[in-house]
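Inverse folding, one chain.
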């Protein structure tokens, strides 16, 4: 299944944390996620972050004209949803049974590696997306025992730019950014 960018909007409200003020949110219908690009004062991108996964095929991302809060249509369920921010302290704590290192080297002109340390056996998959959210590479899903697992990605045929290495461990996804230089 391919991915399709399906909506985008600048956040102009005040109910999200300061890091999202003026940020550019964009959705992907096919991959069912929303991501955010943080901008500098001249509207140049400075950071690319995951925001939400399993968003039920988001389309038509728009700000509320009065509050600035963002809304989208979850086309898979036919619902209009408001994107609300829940502080981490208010979320029920979960124990993460793994650690993922930053990509080394970064930036890179060739192979780059993230190291996955599993405290217990887990189901693991890896997907690399370009900054527009297009899937560029993926690994087969594997059952891995506890231990240290280097994950190496070689950006063969990729253009210069920022890519996201998304590592899913038993349903929990952690992303690492890597800059590819050609």
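Residues assigned per position:
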């Amino acid at each position: 299944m391919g991915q399709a960018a399906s909506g985008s909007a600048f956040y102009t409200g005040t109910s999200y944390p300061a890091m999202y003020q003026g940020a550019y949110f964009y959705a992907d219908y096919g991959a069912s996620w929303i991501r955010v690009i943080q901008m500098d004062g001249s509207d140049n991108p400075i950071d690319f972050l995951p925001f939400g996964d399993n968003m039920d095929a988001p389309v038509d991302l728009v700000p509320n004209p009065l509050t600035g809060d963002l809304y989208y249509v979850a086309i898979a369920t036919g619902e209009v949803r408001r994107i609300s921010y829940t502080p981490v302290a208010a979320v029920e704590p979960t124990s993460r049974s793994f650690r993922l290192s930053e990509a080394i080297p970064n930036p890179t002109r060739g192979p780059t590696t993230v190291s996955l340390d599993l405290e217990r056996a887990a189901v693991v998959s890896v997907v690399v997306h370009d900054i527009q959210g297009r899937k560029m590479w993926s690994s087969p899903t594997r059952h891995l025992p506890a231990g240290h697992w280097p994950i190496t990605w070689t950006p063969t045929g990729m253009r210069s730019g920022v890519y996201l290495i998304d590592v899913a461990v038993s349903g929990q996804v952690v992303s690492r950014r890597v800059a590819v230089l050609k």
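Residues 5-90 form one domain. The two ends are 29 Å apart (CA to CA).
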